């Protein structure tokens, strides 16, 4: 016979009324019915949100069945990144999402402060691809940095 336990932290108190709640590191407080609250690990973390040291980072790269990556997986604090192998581009989170880059493709990486963008174009799509790419990049740069100048 299954048993259901209904419990909360601090009856008659909510996340808003508690200056310091019982939720530990990397966890959040949420209100439940009846003026009470519970704790839950933040996204990208697991463990016990009530006991020190709280919720710990999940190494998503060690569990690719749950956190898919079909490229280069890098665990980050609270998340992970997945990029295509060198010589390919696309969506490494998706099976067969990385495709080989055509040899006649230009890649330009534009970095402005904390913002970066990779622009790719096939060189033979127009009669003057490099000129068209350069003009597009300059217009993009001017649009993004209209407040920078």
Description:
- With about 150 residues, the chain is mainly β.
- The chain is about 10% helix and about 35% strand.
- It is built from 1 helix and 10 strands, in the order ββββββββββα.
- Strands 1-2 form a two-stranded antiparallel ribbon.
- The longest helix has 16 residues, at about 130-145.
- The radius of gyration is 24 Å and the shape is elongated.
- The termini are far apart.
- Residues about 120-125 have low confidence and may be disordered.
Instruction: Provide the β-strand percentage band.
Output: 25-35%
Distance between the termini: 70 Å
Weakly predicted, low-confidence segments: 122-126
Helix count from the secondary structure assignment: 1
Helical fraction: 10-25%
Annotation keywords:
two-stranded antiparallel ribbon; 149 residues; single chain; elongated; 1 helix; mainly beta
